[in-house]
Structures are given as C-alpha cells and as structure tokens.
Amino acid sequence: MPTRPQGTVTRGTTNPNRLRRMDRWIAATHGAELRRAADPLAVDLGYGAAPWTAVELLQRLRTAAPRTRVVGVEIDPARVAAARPYERAGLVFRHGGFEVPVQGRPTLIRAANVLRQYDEDEVTAAWDRLRARLAPATTTSRGGMLVEGTCDEIGRRHVWVALGPEGPRTVTFATRLGSLDRPSDLAERLPKALIHRNVPGEPVHAFLRDFDRAWATAAPYAAYGARQRWIRAVRAVRADWPVRDGAARWRQGEVTVAWEALAPRG
Q: pLDDT tens across 8-35, in order?
C-alpha cells in the first residue's frame, strides 16, 4: 500500500528564474560533491504549481556536474500530472512530500518557499526527515546537502540555510544589490527557523544590525557602485562574524555565515 506523503499542500506560487540565486550558489559550492557522486541525484521538493524551478535546476546543475539528474517532488497530484509533459532525460516528477520518494540517497535536496508556510516548531522535524534522506558523509565526501530557504516572488531577495547529514552548516543572504536600501531589508525573507527570531537578544537580529551599520559606514563606496559598497560592508562584518565565503561570492550580492553564529537561542 503506498505511503501517504508527509506534509501539506503549499500555495504553489512559482515564477521562471525565481530561484536563480540559490541555484547558482549550489552549483558553485556543491558542484564538486555532485561531480564526485556515483549517482548525482538532486531533488526539487515542493516545486509548486508549475515545473519551471525543476527544469532550471537541471540546467544550472549540469553546468557544474553534467551527470546530475533531477526529480521534482510535489505533494499535490494535480501539479505532478501537469509537470509530466516537461519530463526529459535527467528530469522526472514524482508525487510525495518530506519522505522524498526517490530511489537512492540524494546528493542535494532543495526546498525553497516550502517551510515558510509551516509553524516554527515544525521546522526541526522537517529538517530531520530531509537530512535522513541525504547521501551520508564518507572519508572523501561531506555527504549530501539540504538547502532550505525563502525568496520574494521574482527572486531579488533570498535567504537560505544549508544543512548536511550532521545538521545545519551555514546561512546565506543573497540579493540584487540595485534593489537594496540596507542589508536588513533581507529580514522579511529569513527562513522559518529564523524569521521570528529577528528581535533584540537573538543572534540574527544582532548580525543584521551590525551589517546595517557596516553598510552605512561604507556609504562612500556607493560612488563606485552598490557591489563595491556591499563588498566593503561584508569585509567589515567579517571582523566580528564568521563569514564563510570570499569576494568571489560577495560580488554576486551574497554573504554566507556559519549557522552556529545565527542559530536561535533557547
């Protein structure tokens, strides 16, 4: 008897190119793991009412790891039926939820704009279910990666958490710099695990406060463009916060911070 999918139907909002910032970061930072994997399997969990994000994920990951295949998983059977005509070599669609109904252990699970619609106290259990499905770490690999986060409707602002089989690793803030007034504008796109923690006394609030201050101090660099101002602000923030990436990613309008520095208290 088929297992009942785990989870609830989301709103399904989706747009072409919405997840480009997340996809490019995954290809850049996780591409080596995908290339090393015997079966580089990626799952687009909760792709929504249209299959665009799964189609684009395949295209972008294959630039980094040409053998990658993608499975789009949706809990709404009607959405799966609507996506089936878009199947191609390396891309299929399946009905399911947090149980991730695929053969084998994925090297990547991407869950974008899914947990935003759940309660905060449901996040850890969902993360644990998904992490349990990842490819395990070995002596030559850190294992699979779960990327879970939230973005706006057209992908200008995005924040995500990267998790391995062992637990949360990092938080990445990504934005179209030309649309940004201050770094704390990204607070409205914090993933469910952090969005209610953007209050005094919580680490994520302190980080965004410090980032805003660094952004203000870097105002003279705006004469050279928003990118130079962002890079200067990130360099300043790095003095007090464990930033895990470098200028090549900052130039993309990104900054990645160790999870333990931003994790909720209590």
A: 666 657 778 999 999 999 999 999 999 9
